[in-house]
Structure formats: structure tokens, C-alpha cells
Amino acid sequence: MVKNFPDDPRFRDLLGNETHYLGHRLGQLGRLQEAEQAYRQASEAYAELASDFPAKPRYKVNCGHACTHVGNCLAGFGEFQQAEEVYRQGVALLEEVEANSPVADSSTENSGYLLAWAYSALGALLADTGRLMEGEEVLTKSVAVAQEVVDEFPHPQYFRTVLGSACLNLGKMLRIAGRLPEAEEAQRQALSVALKLVDDLPAQPRQRRFLAGACYRFGLLLTDMGRMPDAADNFRHGQTILEKLVDEFPELPGDWNSLARLLATCPLPELRDPQRAVELAKKAVELAPDSEYYWSTLGKAHCRAGNWESAKAALEKRMQVSSRGTRSDCFFLAMAHWQLGEKNEAIHWYGQAVEWMESNNLHDIELHRLRAEAAELMGVNEERTSEEEEGSFRNDKQ
Ligand SMILES: [Zn+2]
After folding, report:
1. Taking the CB of the first residue and of the last residue of the chain, which one, N or C, has fewer CB atoms within 10 A?
2. Per-residue burial over 24-63, b = 16 or more CB atoms within 10 Å of its CB, e = otherwise
3. How far is CA 364 from CA 19, 300, 309, 371, in A?
4. What pLDDT is stored for residue 177 in this prediction?
């Protein structure tokens, strides 16, 4: 239709919408590369409409929305520079709309809500890549803009979810900065938004997923603060929510995967159940064998269960499905090879992961712990490795 009627914006608008929702669906199935393509198509359709009809803010708003999705996919693949570029394009469009002709209704085209979401994603990336001051500035704006939208329209769940995730990302940034009491305050706000959402919409699985994620993040923070019983309560609460979700929606791979991740990687050893995590992760892989993301979880669960051959096989399969975004999996692959006595391969994969972390200046706390775990297992002297193996790109940066 778009080809037959190139001048009719309605078909192009429809194409943008349909590819956008296709992206959502593919994302739910863990097919992130295809989701990225769909979101790109949506953002291009809207970018063209926005340039042909500059007086219509809706096209810019939808383009900004799709840009945040594309950025999220890229960030998920560990392609941070590209993600940042796309996020910034979306932010620029949405800031322009907010300044000149804001869309201030209760629909998903509200420009304030989408700007808050775009700030939240960009701020989280800035924090993860070591730019804490700018990250804090952007995330503070995100919370403020989202709060304004929620004050004006207190009911739509998507506005409240964005407020909750903005608080969650601010909390993550403050945790990276070591400002734990402030992180606690932000994360408590996220939790209270999430709890209220689940109270108001108990049948909505999306809100329960969000609450489970907020509980997990809060558990991580409390672990850092040494408050283990509170941390355990939060991890358990997250687990209970996910257990119910897999019962209710056994056909959706994402919940099996999240539960497997929790049981494989929970920082409190008494709450881990790697054997069960393997079974759960297998279920996700069965439901969606084309998702690199679920193969990755299966590999990690096998590692935690000490099944080194199976771990290696699952992680290799993961890289076959897609070689993008593999770098944090490389630490697990390195550990599996090491345990199998394949030291050269282990050192190779460890080096790949370290190079990726250093070149992106990654500050993610869990990733640093994983790196330290792999280094300890392999007896790598981190200081020496940094100088010897990473000298070339360190010099590039300086
Ligand atoms: Zn969307």
C-alpha cells in the first residue's frame, strides 16, 4: 500500500505502527535482532513522515519512541556507542516537541512520558559507561518529567511504569557511584510505584514483571549494604512473582528465562538453585530456540550447576544464533573452558570480554564481579593483564 500510494500519509503511519508492534512482539519472544530491525523500520517510516509533515508533532513523537526501542536493542547487544547515538536522536526530537508543541494527553503518544522514557534509557547507558555526572543529570530530569506527567494523569499504567523505571535507573546510577542511602531512596520510590501498580492492576502480567525486576534490583542494593535478611526477602518476593507468572503463562519464554536467571545468579548462595535453573532455562530455549538470549541463560545456569561441557555447548550455540552482544557471556565461556582444562581458549574468551569492558569503560557492578570471579578462577593477575594485553587500546584512549 505504501508503494502504491506513496503520498498518502495514512498508509505510512500504519506501516510505522505495525512494524513498531511487531518489534514489541519479537522482543517478547527474545528475538532481539529481528526486533531491532522492526523498530528501525518504524523509526524510518516516522522520520520520513516527520520531515514531510513538520507541523505534525505526532510523527516526531512516534519516531522518538521507536528510537528509544532501537537504542534499547543496541544497548542489549553491548553496542553502546551506536545505542547512545540513537537515544540522543530520540531525545532531540522529543525535546523539540516538548518545547514547541507538546502532546499532552493521556495516550501513549504523550511527548512528556516518551521524553522521560528516552532520558531514562540514555541516563542508564551514561551511568553504565562511566559518565556518572551526566547520567545523574539526565536521570534526574527523567524522574522529574515522568512525575509531572503522572501528576497530571495519575491513572495510565504506562506513565507510572516509566516513572518507576526512571527511579530504578537513578537508583542503579547512585549504586554505581557508591551513594547507597540515596540509591535506597530512589529504589524505594520505584518499588512503591510498582507495588501500587500491581495493587491497582492485579491481572496485568507486565506490572508484576516490573515489580519482580524492582525487587531483584533492590535485593542487589541491600546485599551491597550488608543487609542480607532484607535482601533475601526481596529476592524471594521477586521469585514468588515469577513462579506465579510461569504457572499462569507457561507459553511465554521470557518468564521461564527470568526465573532461571534469578535462581542461577542470585548473589545469596542459599537462594540459588542451579539445577532447577537449568531445567527452567531449557524450557525457555524449547519455546524459543532462535533466541540467543535464552541460550545465554542456559549456558550460565549450566556453569552455575558445574555442568561444564553442557555450559560450553549452550554458550557456543548462543554464539551461533548470533555473534552480537556475546561479550559478557565470554566470561562464562572462559570459565567453562578453564574447568575443562582448555586453557588457551579460556584465556582467549576472557581477553575478549575484558577488552569489551575496558573499551566501553563499563561500570556495571555485577559485570565487574563476574570478571573478578573469572580472574580468580584462572589465576589471572588483573593488574598485569591490563597492562600487557590491553596496552594497545588503553593507549588509544589516552
Ligand atoms: Zn513501544
Report:
1. C
2. eebbebbbbbbbbbbbbbbbbbbbebbeeeeeebbbbbbb
3. 32, 18, 28, 11
4. 96
Q: How far is the CA of 41 from the centre of ligand 1 (A)?
A: 13
127-169 tens-digit pLDDT: 999 999 999 999 999 999 999 999 999 999 999 999 999 999 9
Instruction: Report if residue 204 sits inside a domain.
Output: no
Q: Which pLDDT tens digit goes with each residue over 171-202?
A: 999 999 999 999 999 999 999 999 999 999 98
Q: How remote is the CA of residue 67 from the centroid of ligand 1, in Å?
A: 10
Query: In angstroms, what is the span from residue 116 Cα to ligand 1's centroid?
Result: 14
C-alpha cell at 37: 530491525
| Domain membership of residue 339 as a residue range | 326-398
Gap from CA of 331 to ligand 1 centroid (Å): 32
Establish if 355 belongs to a structural domain: yes
Distance 78 CA to ligand 1 centre (A): 21
Number of domains in the chain: 1
The answer to whether position 236 is within a domain reads no
Task: For residue 22, report the distance from its CA to the centre of ligand 1, in Å.
Answer: 10
- Ligand 1 centroid vs 62 CA: distance in angstroms? 9
Instruction: Give distance in angstroms: CA of 113 to centre of ligand 1.
Output: 12
Q: In the predicted model, is pLDDT for residue 220 greater than 80?
A: yes
- The verdict on residue 287 lying in a domain is no
